[in-house]
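hi! just following up on the protien thing from before. the input was this:
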Amino acid sequence: MKKAWLLAVLALVLVISACGSKDNNKGSNASPSAKASSEAPAADGQKMYIPIISKGFQHQFWQAVKIGAEKAAAELNVEITFEGPETESQIDKQLEMLQVALDKKPSAIGFAALDSQASIPYLKKAQDAGIPIIAFDSGVESNIPVASVATNNAVAAGIAADKMAELIGSEGEVAVIAHDQTSRTGIDRRDGFVNRMKEKYPNIKIVDIQYGGGDHLKSTDLAKAIMQAYPNLKGIFGTNEGSAIGVINAVAETKKEGKIIVVGFDSGKAQIDGIKNGLMAGAVSQNPIGIGYETVKAAVAAAKGEKVDPVIDSGFVWYDKSNIDSEEVKAVIYE
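and the predicted 3d structure came back as:
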């Protein structure tokens, strides 16, 4: 009898044990490894993420770059974000944006540096993390970026100098309103213009170079001050959209149309209007949509480990009243 009782207890224990084992098997779907797998994003079919950090948003130029970047992203089926500081003088804010982008561990980053040196420590972080950097519009003093997508700014500014010289009879006083002296675009456009004048036109004197931060209001004030200080001034070169618009406004406000030759860079609506109404002689236009497109295209290739050309020249065109309605010019201006 005692033996039978022990057998019954043993059987009951086995049944309880079996039920517990069954319940535990149900709970195994939430085991640490399985749970981690279910919460992690799927490796297959997930879009590559590429943040694009520009130098600003206040000019039509950057909006055109954004259009090109979005076009490439749609064609290549990748996700991008496009941002930049409110003004092109906010270097610290741009660096904060770069750090935030790094924290998201993207596949690659497109970056247009406001300061060619200040961003290098952040780019080193990207390099250490295996995140390819594509520089666009404005490069850095480093070989960290795997590619640079930009206009050859020094050559383009040299063309602007040739046009200015032609328009003022290869002699006289001229000045420069540059957007900055920290970015590669600011440096290369200033130096490309100045060096060409020194090399080819000994009778042209550059009397002043001022920096307006790409802000058209500040550039207007600077241009007016230069015109007042140098009454024999024949021309002013504005190195980007905001700089050129400032010079146009200064000429209009001082009623010196036809007396001051204005040559610029980029092709926003105010510049195009200035050419059509005679306030501006001409300008160099980059290909901003092409810059945005090629930046994303290069970033995707680099993220996949494919070979990328280290220098991608997005080209430029000189435009003035004689060719502003041509197909070549219409393809790159962005009014």
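Residues 38 and 217 are 55 Å apart (CA to CA).
The radius of gyration is 30 Å.
cheers
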